[in-house]
């Protein structure tokens, strides 16, 4: 029997992982541990609410006492750490929360995990730790050149995980996923933000020339990748979970508009994100050797995703109120007024 603590399991990718694990492994006990920040959403876990092998515990990974109690009470033997502040633009406006969760929180979780004799720890990281890559593909041993406070905080969390493996002999694996999209993603990230804004016939603020390249990975493929690395990854190793679907932002935006039957005139080129990475692209070879392969190609995945936001207004309309509107104003009001 495995007792798995999934931190950040009420967020976008964490909840896809929880839904996947609860269904695929009826013999495991899955405990979602989440602070429920603005990005955490209990609605994301409604599909598993009644499952016998699922529990929810509210808590902050940077709060040592709460983490310790959860590890003890649920006899946790495995930790998968998705918990993070995850939005680059928010990290530029205010890095504090990123240091709290992505750096200090990751450290507390590792340290308590060590004290409780955790058997395996999976740290969920990102392609952003490599920074911008002009040509070719980032490999797992490439150096880190993070460019945003978010990317630097994720690099720090992952380096602490490595240190706990080397110094204390903890069994630790690391995943580095590429840009992920799909249902239940908080509508501040490119795909759900633009899809929901376009549904309402509102302007889409595309940063700079829109020629920046991201490598897109469907959320269920990301969840399956973490499952694969958790079960088969070698301790001390990091694994890229690459989408192998490189697209320019302008092309993704145009396709979202086409799928919704909306005009290209909704696109507004606005002043660029500060320190904006031009391109991310990773090699998937190492994770492929473990047996992981992405199943969704971008066209099918994007169409399914846009349809989901069309069909599930109940999910996102209640998010786009209050704090969300404050953030929208802070991030976009001046940009849209300036129109690069
Ligand atoms: P998200 O912002 O949707 O969810 C983050 C979750 O963590 C939320 O449920 C939030 O409540 C929780 N959380 C935040 N601070 C916490 C704390 N201190 N204690 C406990 N819970 C806390 O993020 P996401 O997009 O699902 O990303 C999940 C992980 O995957 C992150 O570690 C992120 O860095 C990584 N990642 C994301 C992407 C992407 O494209 N979204 C790509 C690669 C890697
Ligand atoms: O309003 C926007 N306009 C725009 O042009 C937004 C929100 C984004 N963009 C651009 C910036 C990026 O080049 O679209 C691209 C994607 O932006 P985000 O969705 O914010 O993602 P990104 O910054 O690439 O980071 C994502 O991938 C790696 C996740 O948010 C991270 O959590 C993950 O680690």
Radius of gyration, in angstroms, nearest whole number:
19 Å
Q: Please summarize the sheet with the most strands.
A: 7 strands, parallel
Number of helical elements:
12
Q: Helical amount among residues, as a percent range?
A: 40-55%
Uncertain runs: none
Strand order of the largest sheet: 3-2-1-4-5-6-11
* Outline: globular
Order of helices and strands: EHEEHEHHEHEEHEEEHEEHEHHHH
Measured by DSSP, the beta-strand proportion falls in 15-25%
DSSP strand tally: 13
Q: What this model shows, in words?
A:
- The chain has 340 residues and is an alpha/beta fold.
- It has 12 helices and 13 strands.
- A 7-stranded parallel sheet has the order 3-2-1-4-5-6-11, sandwiched between helices. Strands 7-10 form a two-stranded parallel sheet.
- The longest helix is centred in the N-terminal third of the chain and has 20 residues, at 96-115.
- The radius of gyration is 19 Å and the shape is globular.
- It starts with a strand and ends with a helix.
- The model has no long low-confidence stretch (mean pLDDT 97).
- Bound molecules: nicotinamide-adenine-dinucleotide and thymidine-5'-diphospho-beta-D-xylose.
Give structural attributes.
globular; 340 residues; seven-stranded parallel β-sheet; 13 strands; binds nicotinamide-adenine-dinucleotide; binds thymidine-5'-diphospho-beta-D-xylose; two-stranded parallel sheet; single chain; alpha/beta
Topology, please?
Elements (H helix, E strand, L loop, with lengths): L2 E5 L4 H13 L4 E6 L19 E5 L5 H10 L4 E4 L6 H6 L2 H20 L4 E7 L22 H20 L3 E6 L2 E2 L8 H10 L4 E4 L5 E3 L1 E2 H14 L5 E4 L4 E3 H12 L6 E4 L14 H6 L7 H14 L1 H5 L5 H16 L2
Parallel strand pairs: 1-2, 1-4, 2-3, 4-5, 5-6, 6-11, 7-10, 8-13
Antiparallel strand pairs: 9-12
Helix pairs in contact: 1-7, 2-4, 4-5, 6-8, 6-10, 8-10
Bound molecules: nicotinamide-adenine-dinucleotide and thymidine-5'-diphospho-beta-D-xylose.
């Amino acid at each position: 029997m495995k007792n798995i603590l999934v931190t950040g399991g009420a967020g976008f990718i964490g909840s896809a992982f929880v839904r996947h694990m609860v269904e695929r492994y009826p013999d495991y006990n899955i405990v979602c541990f989440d602070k429920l920040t603005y990005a955490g959403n209990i609605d994301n876990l409604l599909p598993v609410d009644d499952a016998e092998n699922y529990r929810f515990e509210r808590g902050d990974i940077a709060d040592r006492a709460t983490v310790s109690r959860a590890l003890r009470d649920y006899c946790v033997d495995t930790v998968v750490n998705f918990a993070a502040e995850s939005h680059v633009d928010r990290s530029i406006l205010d890095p504090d929360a990123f240091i709290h969760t992505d750096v200090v929180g990751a450290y507390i979780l590792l340290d308590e995990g060590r004290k409780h004799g955790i058997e395996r720890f999976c740290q969920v990281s990102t392609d952003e730790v490599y920074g911008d890559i002009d040509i070719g593909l980032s490999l797992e041993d490439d150096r880190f050149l993070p460019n945003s406070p978010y990317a630097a905080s994720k690099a720090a969390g992952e380096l602490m995980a490595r240190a706990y493996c080397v110094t204390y002999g903890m069994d630790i694996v690391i995943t580095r996923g590429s840009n992920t999209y799909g249902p239940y993603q908080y509508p501040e990230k490119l795909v759900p933000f633009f899809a929901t804004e376009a549904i309402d016939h509102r302007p889409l603020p595309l940063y700079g020339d829109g020629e920046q390249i991201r490598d897109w990975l469907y959320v269920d493929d990301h969840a399956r990748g973490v499952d694969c690395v958790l079960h088969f990854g070698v301790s001390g190793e990091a694994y890229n979970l690459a989408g192998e679907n490189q697209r320019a932002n302008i092309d993704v935006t145009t396709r979202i508009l086409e799928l919704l039957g909306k005009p290209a005139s909704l696109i507004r080129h606005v002043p660029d994100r500060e320190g904006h990475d031009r391109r991310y692209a990773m090699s998937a070879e190492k994770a492929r050797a473990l047996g992981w392969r992405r199943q969704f190609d971008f066209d099918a995945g994007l169409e399914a995703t846009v349809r989901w936001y069309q069909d599930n207004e109940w999910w996102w309309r209640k998010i786009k109120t209050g704090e969300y509107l404050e953030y929208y104003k802070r991030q976009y009001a001046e940009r849209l007024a300036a129109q690069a």
